[in-house]
Design a protein that fits this description.
Helices cover 74% and strands 0% of the residues. The protein is mainly α.
Amino acid sequence: MLDPGDTLSCGVMNSVAPTSKHRRLPGLNVRPGSIKQARAEAGLTLAQVASGRLSRTAVHLAESGKTRPTLPTIELIAARTGKPVDFFLDPGQGGEARAGAPAMDRLRELAAAEQFRELLDQALLAKRAAGNTLDAAWAGYYVALARIRLADPHPALAELRQLRPVFEAAGDRWMVVECLDWESAALYLLEDAAAQGVARQALALSRELKPPHRAVEARILGRLGSIAVANHDWGSAIDFYQQAIEVAGDLKDLSRLGKMYNDLSIAYERLGDLPRARQHSQKAINIHELLQDQMSVARAENNLGMVLIRQGDLDSAREHLHRSLRICEETGLEVGKGTVLLTLAELDLHGGDPGGARKHANSARELAEKGNERGTLSHAHQLLGQIAESAGSKAEADREFGIAIAVLEGAGLRQRLVSCLAAYARVLEDRGDIDGALAQMKRAVAVTRPDLQQASEAMGEAGAG
């Protein structure tokens, strides 16, 4: 099942306003412990935060509460640690520096607590009440984040594409990274092939900014891992997750770790390492239950069900899949529910119940058509083709596989297209249609290695001549 994202780790690269030599700016009340917390989460030393613009002592005094830093100092610390300015300021701080900050504080708290329905309501209110374009953009960012985490990607995508130019104009490159990352999350939920390119753009830009923000980079690498899983690129998925874990180091983010375990379980399952796949699925379930993240529990339960089907433990698989489906229904989760229905269809097929398999696959197809989930839609047609083949309906099987292949070609999902073509080739081979099977394998080669396909055609033409 597709996973919309990870816990919030937003950053801001604010420009630092020059100070006058003739006027001392007032000191601000800093929220106790905020500077040290931000520095620790960014993995920076005092000297790295100072970065030649401040003295190490000045950062230490501000961090320990022995001095009251000015707004430019706070802006510099915010830029170095990847936090918004209002993260550091005490809730009782007055003046323009705190304009709109209480609302932003509340939005950040709700995001960190993963209370996304309340976050959406509060962010919409804050956006309407915003006094300027930048405050409205910040509120809009939380609106988009909440929608993505509630599996409502269409309006989130439109919101993020409007926000990015605002942050670019403000010189806030960290928020440009954030918008790109969450845009890739929305595209990923929509099973859009553009997700990978946008995520790579976010990763490249994040690595240009100094100092580096390990939490953000780890999140983007994790996103690329999830996209690779969705694209059936199992080796790349494991590589991205290993990079994410290495970059994260000792940063503790249970929610993200749970999602990594979840997707790693899929990758290992597809590579045939079923014991490791089952181990990672159970770890993901345990973490998400601890965090009371029901939607992520549903995804992990589905993946564990897939592993158990491969291991032949159909009774246990059914138990986990029914729990996954029940959570989807209780939480109102529509995007991704089709994946659970397809796994149930596979379970029925393995259990000798083609009627139940067809019913679940058609339900998944209807949901995928409604939500424009093209990867899930193609999988539904592929599975319907396999069901038809098992019933001896060859013409129907060919028609369903044809639809599945056409959907993937139109969506530009190349790795999934290769998997579908290979599955169709196996069906044709089992049917005794060796020529048809070879034709599908040639199509798969043409997708992955067009250079080999062109060379083969050239050799054929030379031989004919």
